[in-house]
Amino acid sequence: MSATSPITAQSLFDLLRDDLAAIEREFGRETVANARAITDIGEYLRGGGGKRIRPALLLLAAKLFGYEGRGAIRLGAVVEIIHTATLVHDDIIDEAETRRGRPAANTQWGNAKCVLAGDWLYMQAFKIAVQERNFRILDTLIELTQQMVEGELLQMEKLGRCINVSEHLDLIFRKTACLFSVCMRLGAILGGASEEQQERLGEYGRNLGLAFQIVDDVLDLTASEEVLGKPVASDLREGKATLPVILALERCTPGEHAQIERVLCERELNGVTHPEILAILQRYGALDAATERAQQYADAARKAICSFPDSEIKRALLWAPEFVVARRK
C-alpha cells in the first residue's frame, strides 16, 4: 500500500498475510501433544476458521513501532491458543452443540477430555510466552487469564438474571475486550513502546473489544442460523442477558418484561417465539441503541490512537473499528 491509499479488508489481509500464515503454522506445531486427544481437539478447532482478529491486532501494534521479530509470531500464536482454550471451556459450560457451523468439540470428544485439553492449551500458551524472557509479557498474560476466568464465574452467577448495563459491560470486558486490549499491549511491549503508548493501545483494544462483543450480541438476535453457525438467540437460550435485551427490559411493559425474564430463567423460548422477542426489542429501539453504543466504542478506539504519527499501520488500526461495527457475521 502507498502512504495515502485507503485501507480495505483485502489490503489489510495482504499486509499481514505472511505473518498470519506463520502464526497458523506456529499454532499447528505448538498444539501437538503426546496425548492424541489434545492434538486432535486443537487441530479440529484450528480448522474451524475464525477471524484471527486477535493475532492481527498484536501484529499491527508491534508493526506500529517497527517491530519485525519472531516474537510477534510466537505471541500471535499464544493469544490464539488462549482464545481457543476459552472456546473449549465456554462450550462445555454453555452445553453448546455447535461452534462456527460445526459440532462443538465437547460433542465429539466429551466434556472430560475437552476440559483437560483446554487446560493443556492454557499451559502451552504460557510455555511459548516464556521464550520471550520478558516478565512484563508474562504478567500481562497472567492478568488476562485471571480476568477471563473471573468473567466466566461472574457470568455463571448471573445466568437467568436481569442484570444491568454496568454489570454486562464488566462481563464482556473480562470475556472479550480484555483479550483485545492485551493483544495491543503485547505488541506494544514487543515494539518497545513507552508506558503511555502501551496504555493508549490497551485502551484502543478495550474499546474495540467492547464494540466487537456488542455487535455479536446484536447479531446473535438478528442474523440467521446459517450466518451465525449456531442457533439464533443462543445467548437468551443460555440465560444470558445481553445489551439489546437489557436495554429492552429497561423500557418495556411489565408483561413484556415477564416474557423475557421467563426465557432467561427457563433458558428456553417457552411460550414466546424468537420473532416475538425480536419485535419487543425493535419496538423499544433496543437493537439500534445497542448498535449505537458499539459505534461509540468504535469511535473511542480511534480516538485513543489519534496522536500516533500517520502510517499505513495506523490507518489500518483506524479502519478496524468501522469494520467491526459494520460486519454481518
CATH architecture field: Orthogonal Bundle
SSE topology string: HHHHEEHHHHHHHHHHHH
Radius of gyration: 20 Å
What helical percentage do the residues reach? over 70%
- Report the strand count: 2
Fourth CATH level, the homologous superfamily: Farnesyl Diphosphate Synthase
> Number of DSSP helices?
16
Tell me the name of the CATH class: Mainly Alpha
Strand content: under 5%
Which of globular, elongated, flat, extended, rod-shaped describes the shape?
globular
For the record, the count of structural domains works out to: 1
Structural class: mainly alpha
- Describe the strand arrangement of the main beta sheet, using strand numbers: 1-2
Which characteristics define this entry?
329 residues; mainly alpha; Farnesyl Diphosphate Synthase; two-stranded antiparallel sheet; 1% strand
